[in-house]
Design a protein that fits this description.
single chain; 263 residues; mainly alpha; 86% helix; 0% strand; globular
């Protein structure tokens, strides 16, 4: 019995050490990013290519998800509001729910699964096949070329994808309302815009930049520091998805608390 307890205690201590070590390495990785991002030369071509890969190629998935979010939210909320005779509040409720919480979080989670895992697997495979070492030998800064460009691209593209998901979700809500009743598009959009305030849009926009930054940072960190062996590529991709998804929920929780406290 004592042997089992001792073993569990040692495993717990080892796990705690690994977590602390991982946090320290991630912090050092982030500090290096902020140093490299302001130091020339700037890899603009690679940055634009990453923006295209991360942003444009994610549009079909974000379009489908955003439309379904707005449609389902409308159809699920309508019966409840109808019981209280508040169906006229449906456009406002759908727009506020999408813009403040649902669209940013769901879009970020989708990108965490698609983008962060892709970055982790790509950089992990480059690490395993020693392509990163070859870049260093060729006098190319692999951190600036591979890491900085991807993190900047995710930081810029995720907010744009969220704005796009907001618009598509609101359109999906319009389609959902017109399944049971006829509402003009102009009237629907007027009610949506009338319900929105600065305090609804600004905090939701700011946190999407943090979502994008952490999605790119975690994916790059896991891939750039992958161990030797092909198995590490899959582990890097899987770990990037899990960690990025968890960070999104933590950031969202902090953002909600700060918004409630200061605004």
């Amino acid at each position: 019995m004592n042997t089992v307890l001792t073993k569990k205690k040692e495993d717990l201590i080892q796990y705690f050490k690994e977590v602390c070590e991982d946090v320290g390495k991630t912090t050092s990785f982030s500090i290096r990013f902020f140093k490299e991002v302001i130091r020339p030369p700037y890899e603009m071509k690679e940055f634009i290519r990453q923006c295209y890969s991360i942003g444009y190629k994610s549009l079909p998935l974000v379009t489908i998800t955003g439309f379904i979010m707005g449609l389902v939210l409308t159809l699920q909320s309508r019966p409840t509001l109808a019981k209280f005779g508040a169906e006229s509040w449906l456009p406002s409720m759908v727009a506020l729910s999408l813009i403040r919480e649902i669209a940013p979080v769901i879009t970020a989670l989708i990108c965490a699964g698609k983008v962060s895992s892709g970055i982790g697997a790509e950089l992990g495979s480059m690490k395993v096949t020693e392509q990163i070492d070859a870049m260093e030998v060729s006098a190319i800064n692999p951190f600036k070329y591979l890491v900085v460009t991807r993190i900047l691209a995710t930081t810029l593209m995720i907010p744009l994808l969220v704005f796009y998901a907001d618009a598509i979700g609101i359109l999906g809500g319009y389609m959902g309302i017109n399944i049971h009743s006829e509402v003009g598009l102009y009237r629907y959009l007027a009610e949506v815009l009338e319900s929105l305030k600065f305090v609804d849009i600004f905090p939701a926009t700011i946190k999407t930049f943090f979502f994008g930054f952490f999605i790119g940072m975690i994916g790059c960190y896991k891939g750039f520091n992958a161990a030797n062996g092909t198995e590490s590529v899959g582990k890097a991709a899987n770990s990037a998805v899990v960690t990025a998804s968890l960070s999104i929920f933590i950031i969202d929780m902090i953002a909600v608390q700060l918004t409630d406290l200061f605004l």
